[in-house]
Amino acid sequence: MTLTPTSSADEIVAYLRTLASDENRAGMGRYGIRTDNALGISNAVLGPIAKTVKWDHERSLLLWSTGIREARILAIGTDEPARITRARADAMADDFESWEIVDHAVHLFCMAGLAHEIIPAYAADEREFVRRAAFAAIATAAVHLRHEPHETFVGWLALVEVHSTDDRNFVRKAINWALRQVGKRSTALHLHALNLATKLAASTDKTARWIGKDAVRELADPKLLVRLNAKRR
User: Fold this and answer.
1) CA distances in angstroms from 39 to 3, 8, 32, 219, listed in the order given
2) Cβ atoms 72, 66 nearer than 8 A
3) Which of 14, 87, 205, 233 has an alpha carbon 20 to 30 Å from 187's alpha carbon atom?
4) Half-sphere exposure of 129 toward its Cβ, with a 13 Å CA cutoff?
């Protein structure tokens, strides 16, 4: 079977099933990837498939609806950001059940221009993977939204502090990730992030303390400051 840009969702799923690997599926489970709906196909294989079938919003909706891990990753990778609305993002968030899918999806949401809407809303949401999405989106925005003003990230750091005591594994790791990525965006944001990380590192709450100490380890590295100063030239 050969895939093309006109391949249907059913054809793509049929092709994916030919690549299924129980061995790979077991390996994914060791990284905390939910595998009950997985075929065991690596992202290194899925990337070229996405490039082959190209973008198609309607087909992406169908791929997502299958619930299959690999189909959902392709749904995200081949959707059209301009057609992703807040309602669509919320519908996808309702289905979040894996950190990996969350981290792929927030990139799509950021490219769709939804970061300002979803980050505060999802941070306030008590569901573990939806809250993770807020902080994964901050980390993603810090890298990819190059024209976003400094003040935006300062505001998002306030959310990091507010939720730094959430001890759920996939949330605390995303909060830590967000803090570190904001700190690596620019010299000015580095100072804000390092100050917050230092504050959290001294917290009496063990989760906030872990987030802070781990972030300080990276943000206090002199080599990072050298790289950030070099970017200013």
Assistant:
1) 18, 19, 15, 38
2) yes
3) 205
4) 19
pLDDT, tens digit, 9 for 90 and up, residues 201-230: 999 999 999 999 999 999 999 999 888 888
- The CA distances from residue 34 to 72, 101, 132, in Å, are 13, 9, 15
- Residue 162 is encoded by which pair of tokens? 């507010």
Question: Which pTM does this prediction carry?
Answer: 0.95
Helix (H) / strand (E) containing 77? helix 69-77
What is the DSSP-derived secondary structure letter of residue 25? H
Report the C-alpha gap between 183 and 211 in whole angstroms: 13
Residue 52 contacts residue 3 (beta carbons within 8 Å): yes
Count CB atoms within 10 A of the CB of residue 79. 25
Closest to 171 measured CA to CA, from 210, 113, 117, 115: 210
CA-to-CA distance for 217 and 167, rounded, in angstroms?
Answer: 20
Return the structure tokens found at 73: 């990753």
d(CA 63, CA 16) in angstroms, rounded, equals 11
**CA–CA dist 152, 161 (Å, integer):** 15
- What the block records as the tokens of 136 is 């994964």
Contact 88, 80 (CB under 8 A): no
- Return d(Cα 176, Cα 155) in angstroms, integer: 16
What values do phi and psi take at 148, rounded to 5? -70, 135
